[in-house]
Amino acid sequence: MKSYRIASIPGDGIGKEVIPAGIEVLQKLQDGFRLEFEHFDWSSARYLKEGAYIPEGGLERLKKFDAIFFGAVGAPDVPDHISLWGLRLPICQGFDQYANVRPSRVLPGITSPLDKGKDIDWVIVRENTEGEYSGSGGRVHKGLPEELATETSVFTRKGIERVHRFAFEMARKRKKHLTLVTKSNAQRHGMVLWDEVCDEVQEGFPDVQTERVLVDAMTTRMVLKPASIDTVVASNLHADILSDLAAALSGSLGIAPTANLNPERTFPSMFEPIHGSAFDITGKGVANPIATFWTASMMLEHLGEAKTAARLMKAIEAVTAKKVFTPDLGGTARTADVTRAVISAL
Predict the structure, then answer these.
(1) No. of helices (H) and no. of strands (E), the chain
(2) What's the Rg (C-alpha) of the chain?
(3) Distance in angstroms (rounded) separating the CA atoms of residues 46 and 86
(4) Which residues 6+ apart lie within 8 Å of 248 measured at CB?
(5) Most exposed of 31, 176, 233, 246 (fewest Cβ within 10 Å)?
């Protein structure tokens, strides 16, 4: 029997509630394969106690796993830039998970706040290791009137080429339509290179229709003409913002999944719901686990268990069709109720 080793990192806030729910569902899906979970306490609580999110040698330990199942990071008593750069980004960058994939569609039974929400069926591919979140920059003369802070967006030809190629290949498998999001009219160096490399990659995909849209215009396109969008590729910052808008237009951040992929499989990939730690509802038992279940389906597909991944998505859609909703979707169900419903649907 095939066996997959999964590193479980619930992290902070509702991550500690939805990741166990996801594992409970995944354990019911083991048919012809086995999932072996190992749990890591890497969190803001650990940071406050030990001074680090990831212990020495932690990434070396993670390398041995087939995938990482990640909850969230962020806590009220730790500055956000410390928590993000302490846990999630070191894994994404350290394991070269350069393709962040965020699908969006309105699941059965869910009502989009958008009149044309039924037309949403998108995949946003986000460059995940450089761009605006490269970490390049610094601060000098702290506390003085002449204090200076720089944040440098880093765009490399290699980084751009590989994420565009990934996006073109995904578009080819879908509707053969790719929207390149850019801001090269104002960002005349990095984003111009971004556009130019896309044009070069496009030559190898003559069957894929490509259009270029400025990021500000893309927000209006998503709202006014959702049917005109299929596969999208955007830089780290732009895709981060657009994918949250996509989730909200699909009904809730609580249903939105993410895959942080190392397509070459040199390192394990990481799978996480996008809703964050949500401390405003932590401990209330009402966190929506649908994003985690959908994320789990993406993880199964990545592991090569496509039939089981499809089975899980079918169960998720059966539950949303019955409107077993947590409060973020206007319902009264609890995390445990949705979890039981999905297991029953399986």
Answers:
(1) 12, 12
(2) 20
(3) 11
(4) 113
(5) 31
Beta-carbon contacts of residue 161 (< 8 Å; ≥ 6 apart): 197, 200, 201
pTM score of the predicted model: 0.96
Q: At what angle do helices 157-173 and 190-202 cross, to 10 degrees?
A: 50
How do strand 231-234 and strand 177-182 relate by DSSP bridges? parallel
Q: How far apart are CA 283 and CA 16, in angstroms?
A: 9
Model confidence at 1: pLDDT above 90: no
Report how far residue 175's alpha carbon sits from residue 158's, in angstroms, rounded to the nearest whole number: 26
Residue written as tokens 């006014």? 224
Query: What backbone torsions phi and psi does residue 163 show, to the nearest 5 degrees?
Result: -75, -35
How does pLDDT run across 219-260, given as a tens digit for each residue?
A: 999 999 999 999 999 999 999 999 999 999 999 999 999 999
Give the Cα separation of 103 and 108 in Å (integer).
15
CB 43 within 8 A of CB 11: yes
Q: Which amino acid is at 284?
A: K
- Express each pLDDT in 296-334 by its tens digit: 999 999 999 999 999 999 999 999 999 999 999 999 999
- The answer to whether 249 touches 113, Cβ cutoff 8 Å, is yes
Q: Can you list the positions of beta strands (E) in the chain?
A: 2-11, 33-39, 67-72, 99-105, 121-127, 131-140, 148-154, 177-182, 209-214, 231-234, 257-261, 269-273
- Coil, strand, or helix at residue 98? coil
